[in-house]
Each structure stands twice: as C-alpha cells, then as structure tokens.
What we know:
By secondary structure, this protein is an alpha/beta fold. The protein has helices spanning 4-13, 15-19, 36-46, 60-71, 98-103, 121-130, 146-158, 171-176; strands at residues 22-27, 52-57, 76-81, 95-96, 108-112, 115-119, 138-142, 163-167. A 6-stranded mixed β-sheet has the order 2-1-3-5-6-4. A two-stranded parallel sheet has the order 7-8. Helix 6 crosses helix 7. The protein is globular. The two termini are 32 Å apart.
Amino acid sequence: MKNQKDFNKIISNNIFFKKRKYALIIGETPSRGARSPKLWNRIYKKYKDHTKMFPADVSIQNLKKLMCYLKFDNLFIGSAVTAPYKEKILRYIDATSPEVKIIGSINTIKKINNEFVGYNTDYHGVMKSIITFKKKKNILILGCGGVGKAVILACAKNFNNALFYLYNRDKKKLRKF
C-alpha cells in the first residue's frame, strides 16, 4: 500500500472487509515476505474463524492516517507490527503492557473498545524460554534492537545477580537503552 488512498480503495472495493473482521501486519514492506498472514490465516481457518490477516505496506507519511482509520473501523481487531515502526507506532497507542514502557517498542496491537493496546510478545516469549535456566553468573546479549531489548529486560528480571555483557553495533542506542 503506497498511500492512504490505496488502502481506502482496497477497503471500499473489497466486499470481504464489509462483512468480516480482519487483522494486519503493519510495516514498511511486509508484503515482501512476512509470514504472519499465512500463519494466522491457517489458524483462523482451522478454528473456523472468518477473520483474515493482510500485510499493510505503509510509508511513514501515512502511518498516522492508517492508525486513525483503523481506530474507528469496527471490523479491525488488531495488528502485528514490524520494521521500522515498532517504536514509531507507540504515539498512536492508547495503553501498553508494563514491559513496553521499559522496552520502548511493540510488535502487537490489540483493539479493545476502539482503543489500541500495545504489547511486546518478544518479551513474553523470552520469559517462557529462559524460565528453566538455572542461576547464571555471566550473561552476554548481542544487540539491543527490538528483540534484544526484550531479552535484556527478561534476563534482568530472572537473573538479577548476574553480570551482564551487552554489545550493540550502535553504541549510542545501547547507552540510551
């Protein structure tokens, strides 16, 4: 989707949207290979849910317009968020889960009563995967992008007495976090 007019045209011309709930994966170019639509559409089909997920290629200039449109579209249920909008989209979110306030990025939006609630499911995935680890003394984390920040927070909560070694290509980004 190159601009808001393209999105409005798709919505208004597609009978699917007039009858069924839908979800999106919002990013700069998720139509070029995002696997979420295939995965979620299989799940929706398996459970006989008529919801469908679509990729939404959005330029930064049209992100605000898209979010305003979706806020009041009663058929829109939520979204995955991908690069480069995991941080930028926060300004259009009404509420967030506690970890988002620390991590500073979201990858999932759930629409509840015309309000957007943002989550970082990477954090929850990391928490589940490290729960079986024993106490660690030294932890090395490479990268502090969206997932890296989630890993740092999860490890800090689980291994608060460990010595952390953090590496990121962009030193300013690492210091800021």
